Amino acid sequence: MSNPRPFERLAVLGLGLLGGSVAAAAKERGLAREVIGAARRSAPLERALAAGIVDAVARPAEAVVGADFVVLGTPVGSMPAVLSDVRDGLAPGALVTDVGSVKGAVLDALPGLLPEGVDFVGSHPMAGSHLRGPDHARADLFEGATCVVTPRPGQDDRPVERIAAFWAALGARVERRSAETHDEDVAWVSHLPHLVAFAFADALGAAPDRVGTLAGGGFRDFTRIAQSDAEMWGEILRLNAKAISGPLAHFSASLAKLARALEEGDAASLERTLSKARERLAEVAAKASAEGRGGE
């Protein structure tokens, strides 16, 4: 697939793992003639510049001046404040997107903060890990990953197509969803798994210290995402609480069913539930494998 017409100046506000990887990938693939990085603290900017992830660094309000494409790589909760701070520097014709894991809250807040002639299209590249910062940024992070693009109802298709083409050029498989459908879907495949992993890690407070010496691959696989940033994930879970409530209720019911089978010594019920669970997981995994890899 050939690359789309490059942007003149890409400003990435927030150089964490996702923002840094967007900058690195866009620079490597020639998707912007100039890539500018901006962040709250100077240390990540200096490391990103030294690593060649960006061409230059600036304060956020300075970085967006002359930019025809702006990517918000900050935590979702801080995006309105960041956009309010830089809005006066945005020129008509500029495009703005984000990399946030929640889309309803983003689309409710951000488009109304933009000046006339500047368009916003929501994005969620489902790639990443529990690691943070530009030191872990990778130009190939989005290859084979799914990126969800969430247009607003009635939005002009031209900016949506350009944002979709950008993610596709980074190697992602692009899907369109409404913000509501996106939030419902990621509640199942991303947000609830994180919540469960954090809950289990919290329950480990009751475990004896000696259990750590027996923790093997299964323990590490299950708990890896509970090493993710607590502040960021607390915000994500809070902002998508409504969509998570249904999946959480189903999970709680399944856990209660297993607990009853154990308490009653009902081997047949236990085996049926585990077999059914494996079958359903295989169906979902096969779908994911056929359509590309996901992320966090």
Strand content: 5-15%
Characterize the main sheet. 6 strands, parallel
CATH homologous superfamily label of the largest domain: NAD(P)-binding Rossmann-like Domain
Number of domains: 2
- Strand order of the biggest β-sheet: 3-2-1-4-5-6
What CATH calls the topology of the largest domain is Rossmann fold
CATH class designation of the largest domain: Alpha Beta
Order of helices and strands: EHEHEHEHEHEEEHEHHHHH
Helical content class: 40-55%
Distance between the termini: 26 Å
Rg computed from alpha carbons, rounded to a whole number of angstroms: 21 Å
Broad structural category = alpha/beta
Oligomer: single chain
Low-confidence blocks of residues:
none
What's the count of strands?
9
Describe this structure as you would to a colleague.
This protein has 296 residues and is an alpha/beta fold. It folds into two domains: 7-177, 3-Layer(aba) Sandwich (Rossmann fold); 182-291, 6-phosphogluconate dehydrogenase C-terminal fold (Orthogonal Bundle). It is 48% helix and 14% strand. It is built from eleven helices and nine strands. The chain has helices at residues 17-28, 42-50, 60-63, 79-86, 104-109, 157-169, 179-203, 217-223, 230-239, 241-264, 267-291, and strands spanning 7-13, 32-38, 56-57, 69-72, 95-98, 119-120, 122-126, 146-150, 173-176. β8, α6 (157-169) and β9 (173-176) form a beta-alpha-beta unit. α7 (179-203) packs across α10 (241-264) and α10 (241-264) packs antiparallel against α11 (267-291). The mean pLDDT is 93.
